[in-house]
Amino acid sequence: xxxxxxxxxxxxxxxxxxxxxxxxxxxxxxxxxxxxxxxxxxxxxxxxxxxxxxxxxxxxxxxxxxxxxxxxxxxxxxxxxxxxxxxxxxxxxxxxxxxxxxxxxxxxxxxxxxxxxxxxxxxxxxxxxxxxxxxxxxxxxxxxxxxxxxxxxxxxxxxxxxxxxxxxxxxxxxxxxxxxxxxxxxxxxxxxxxxxxxxxxxxxxxxxxxxxxxxxxxx
Length: 219
Prior knowledge:
4 helices, DNA primase, PRIM domain, 27% helix, alpha+beta, six-stranded antiparallel beta sheet
């Protein structure tokens, strides 16, 4: 998995002195005795940004290998966040990413089939083309393990100015593009949204020959 985790920073760059947060969750259906972990990485605690990144990568991969699903908070966190505490919406000072999460609309208890992943890829292309025609830039695309994440870079913008617009946009895209197989998740618009750490394994339910666990990777 380590050959792709450095791609994480292409989507989630460090921003000045603002901390980054890692959250490790027990996968749905896992028999392992795991409990939620939150780790905060403050740039001031490291000698360089490279040192911070390397520690984050080591921790993320170790937790992934241990059976966790590993996530990060994708927007800008206040500098005075108490260490190793779960990040809430009130802790976000600005948005830096718009996430459009395309996944299955039916039973999601187990990993997606290749056919379901392919349907998500097709829908992601349709959504990206539609938004490009409306003036949006080309997004960064991530295979989330069971679907596709489209990330649009934002100049860090205050939550009060954009929050309602994000929710409205997601609902509008879902109404236009959702089908019987895959669709746009309208629940990912909250500012403290966590999202999969690129390079870690997406675990859900029971892995089988037709439904494998997959590593999240930049496309």
